[in-house]
Structures are given as C-alpha cells and as structure tokens.
Design a protein that fits this description.
Distance between the termini: 72 Å
Number of helices: 11
Largest sheet: 6 strands, mixed
Number of strands: 13
CATH class of the largest domain: Alpha Beta
Bound molecules: pyridoxal-5'-phosphate
Shape: elongated
Length: about 300
C-alpha cells in the first residue's frame, strides 16, 4: 500500500509503488468478492524512514484497512511494515532500534486493542540497516590535481562501478585515509572517481593527510545496495568482494568482472572480437595525469628535442 504519509520532510506522495490508500477500499472489495484471491494481510514499504513515528502512523493506517477487510469477510493474519530503517554513517546516528522497538510495540498493541485484533503477525523487512555498516570499499589514489585552491584526489574507484551515486542517491560516505590513519589531516580534498563524468565524486571537501599516488582510502559503510546498483559505465569492472570473518579470516565471495562477460551480449551477436582481445584496453583508460603533465613539461620537452 502507499499510505500517503506526510511527516516533516518525509513523504510517500511521490512514491510510485504500492496501491494508493485512496483506492484501498475498492481493492479490498474486489479482493474479498473474488473467488481467486485470499486477502490475508497488508504491506507498506517506506524506503527512508528517519522518524520512528512513521512506522506507528503506517501501522495505524494498515490496521484500519485490516479492520475494513475483516468487515468484508477477510481473515487478516499479518501486517508488514517493510524496511527503511536508516543506519549510522560517519558521525551521523539515527534512532536506536532497540528503543524504537520497545516504544513501537507499546503503540502497536494499543492499535490492535483499538481495532480488537488478536494474533496478527507483525513483519519488518530491514535491508540496508543490516548490511550498510558491513561494507568498506578500498580505493587507490591514482592522481592529484589542483584546480585553483581546490585539491582533487582522483582514485581508481567510482560511484558508478562500486558505490551508489552520492548525488542521485543522496548517499554520504565517510572516507578514511587507510594507509595514513595516524597522520594529521591538514588538507582538504575532493575524492573523485575515475570516470569521465564530473559528478563522479565519492566525497567532497574531506580533510585528509598529504595524499600521494598509491595511498589507499577506505570508503566506509557502503554495504547496502553498492554492488546491486553498480554498473559497467566507462567499461569499468565491478570490483571483487572479500568477506572478513570475525576471526580475521578472509574469503573471496565475488570476483572482479571480466570483459568476456561485460561484452558478451554484443560479442555473441556481432562476432567481431575475441573477448581476450579486449583485455589490454583496460590500461588505456587509466592515464596518470601528473605523469602526462611531467612528460609535457616544456623544459623536458626541449631536452628531448
Ligand atoms: C519490499 C521491500 N522490503 C524491504 C526492502 C529493504 O529496504 P531497506 O533497505 O530500505 O530497509 C526493500 C528494498 O528495496 C523492498 O523493496
């Protein structure tokens, strides 16, 4: 259901999924009159729920519909409030889920009482909350650039092939200087991806130590949706994933993409190239700007001439 909830800046009015609550009764009538449909529950999924009160509002609305469905002969067994729980990132914490759970159960029981429901199963479907903090992406600085006062660290990572786009998705990643953790963070850098797209910025205005080519950066809390949303834009291969067990053991759980599979849909049809022939193209795409600048240094050029 789209329960048409508005709370502060949160809204489901623009949500394209779910039956709009405005036609819910009509749908319940259709379902309860049909021989082929057994209506046993109601579901709501609210995506990004930063205020716990929204779950209570949703429960209230779903149980009102459940009450109506029961009056039409349905035997309602469950209500499902979907996912949407936010996870902590950087210094940004949301509500405590254990506390939220306690206060929600009190409210939910009151609503059950109000509509005289017993034995209704309550379901949640947390997604990003479970896996968000579990992912860390390691990216390497491949070049530095100075645009006026702005310092850019270009990396071999990208919001396209491994991290959901911070601009499209409003995603913020804390970024740590993995190989210089103890050094003072005295410089401000934009941490850029390696594609041709200027919006490919993994983080902007981040305090870092002096960065050099080869330094590793750790992009924190990127366990949710990263690989599912990753693409092969700019012919980038999606990275491998390594699982770190509690005892420190490492296990490769996903390998890096291969050109053979990235181009397979075209090559299968066109039969123009062996997938192996494309292997060498990869390095052509990754130029090191500083190196190029050095090569073009007029003095050096003169020397060469
Ligand atoms: C129906 C449904 N339930 C749960 C989830 C998980 O959502 P979240 O990661 O916001 O907790 C999704 C995500 O797309 C979903 O579509």
């Amino acid at each position: 259901m789209n329960l048409m909830i508005n709370y502060k800046e949160y809204t489901t009015y623009k949500q394209q999924y779910g039956i709009p609550v405005t036609i819910a009764k009509k749908c319940i009538d259709l379902a309860t009159e049909s021989k082929n449909i057994q209506l046993i529950g109601f579901h709501f999924h609210g995506s990004y729920i930063e205020y716990p009160v929204i779950y209570a509002l949703a429960a209230q609305k779903l149980l009102r519909l459940a009450d109506y469905a029961r009056s039409r002969g349905a035997k309602i067994e469950a209500v499902d409030l979907g996912g949407g729980f936010p996870f902590e990132y950087g210094n940004h914490a949301f509500y405590d889920l254990a506390e939220m759970g306690k206060s929600f159960v009190r409210k939910f029981n009151k609503i059950l009482e109000k509509y005289n429901f017993q034995n209704i199963r309550l379901i949640f479907e947390p997604g990003k909350y479970i896996v968000g903090n579990a992912g860390i992406a390691l990216i390497k600085v491949v070049s530095k650039k100075y645009l006026g006062k702005r310092k850019l660290a270009v990396t071999d990572g990208s919001t396209y092939c491994m991290l959901p786009d911070p601009l499209v998705y409003r995603q913020y990643y804390d970024i740590l200087p993995a190989t210089k953790l103890t050094q003072p963070r005295i410089r401000t850098f934009d941490i850029c991806g390696c594609t041709c797209d200027y919006i490919d910025k993994i983080g902007t205005g981040r305090k870092m130590p002096r960065l050099q080519e080869g330094d590793l950066l750790a992009v924190m809390d990127c366990g949710a949706y990263s690989i599912a949303m990753a693409s092969n834009f700019n012919n980038l291969k999606r990275p491998p994933i390594i699982m770190v067990r509690e005892n420190g053991e490492l296990k490769l759980v996903r390998r890096r993409d291969r050109y053979s599979e990235m181009f397979a849909p075209e090559l299968d049809v066109l039969k123009i190239a062996e997938p192996n022939e494309l292997k060498n193209l990869y390095n052509l795409l990754r130029g090191n700007c500083n190196q190029v600048q050095k090569e073009l240094d007029p003095l050096k050029l003169e020397e060469k001439v």
